[in-house]
Amino acid sequence: MATLRESIRAASARRAGRMIQCEVAVEAVAVVSPSFRRVTVRGDGLSAYIDPLPADAFRLFLHPPAAAGTGSGADAGAAGPDDRAELSRAFTVRTFDPAANRLTFDVHRHGSGSAAGWLDRLRPGDTADLLGMRVEFAPPEAGAPARTSTAILVADGSGLPAVAAILAALPAGQPAVVLLSGLVEQDLGLLPERPGDDLRLVPAGGLPAAVRALTRPDGGALAFVAAEASEVRVIRRLLAEDLGVPRGDLRASAYWRAGETMEEADAAAELRYAEAAAQGRDLSDPAVLEELALA
């Protein structure tokens, strides 16, 4: 059976040359838990999204929400590029309705930065430019046997939407251990109901200790990690060395960096990726992307 990384790489190769770039309009914004809001967007260009995978990632380039007294969000979206805020954020697909070209995603509401202000002002009719989709997780190829090894999913609030999407895609018989940090009990309602899963909520900063407390699963394991960069580095080592997760079945992503704004982190990441591309490195290889993300 293909490893998780091999499946991700194969799915990325199938999408080569099919990047989705389109404008989307907000249809709804709803509070779904104390820490999360669910945003629903629609756009004709989403008709190109023909192969959804769990936890697909995309980037939104955020137009300023419509200002009071200036008309609808659609009017604001018609502004020229120089009038738009230079702000972008990455999100995870939660659901997609191909018949309506409608996509939902959950946003972790925390802090008081530019994106938080955008989210607080967001209203139906506001617009954004969408760029995607990046493969974050991939099930086995069609016709291949389902994975039966334990899925170890580790995330803070930034990674919970990805964990929720992955859990929803796992076969009913595949066991899962889910470690989440920095959230409240009500936030767990975003996860699909899967009787038998081992779900643990730990304090902020407590993910490495929670991973250390795990016992090595019988029958092997695969793992997905999405959290702050320094925590992810430690967790990745613990999963591989202490719990025996094969490197090929370990997907670790740094969703943010302590002490850096998202703009600073994104600018530094762009430089690392550009340098790697100039060196001829394969940016479709999940191992290379993981190395760059955690550098």
Automatic annotation (TrEMBL):
Looking at the UniProt entry, the stretches that span the membrane are: none
FAD-binding FR-type domain: from which residue to which, for each copy? 19-140
GO terms of molecular function: oxidoreductase activity
- Give one Pfam family, short name only: SIP
* Name of the protein: NADPH-dependent ferric siderophore reductase
Q: Which organism is it from?
A: Parafrankia soli
